[in-house]
Amino acid sequence: MAHPDLDELVNALFAFAHQMLADHGEFFPFGASMSHDGEIAYSSGLDGEEEQPDSTRVLELLLESFAGQAASGQIRAAGVCMDVTVVPPDGGEPVDAMCAQLEHEEGEAVDVFLPYHLDPDGGLEYDDLFAGPGDPRVFPGSPLVS
Fold this sequence. Notes:
With 146 residues, the protein is α+β, with helices and mostly antiparallel strands. The chain has one domain. 26% of the residues lie in helices and 34% in strands. Strands 1, 2, 3, 4, 5, 6 and 7 form a seven-stranded antiparallel beta sheet that branches. The longest helix is centred in the first third of the chain and has 21 residues, at 4-24. It is globular and about 45 Å long.
């Protein structure tokens, strides 16, 4: 079971990603962090200079920023959200999915996937959510991360 802070973060990340998909049919990677008082703050990782920045670089910038905030004790959880193609756990063909990579200062790291597809009328339809262990990059020195 995921830490309640991570549940709250994934809900916030997926809500924003849903809105971007509904409005634009795509989204650039973005992130959110949770302060020690439970406040969620969104981050874009965009510098405003490029209309279509490299997604890998945007993710690196977000993770670097969150790692700095974690090291200075400003946040207790963070996550990045991106649009990916993934093979569902039951196999089959690759599908489009929202992916949230989440981390908590207590050492939990999890990747959560929500497969989706656009219906012919432009609406969004979702398949079953699935998750797996994540790779800690924001809180790598947490007591539970070895």
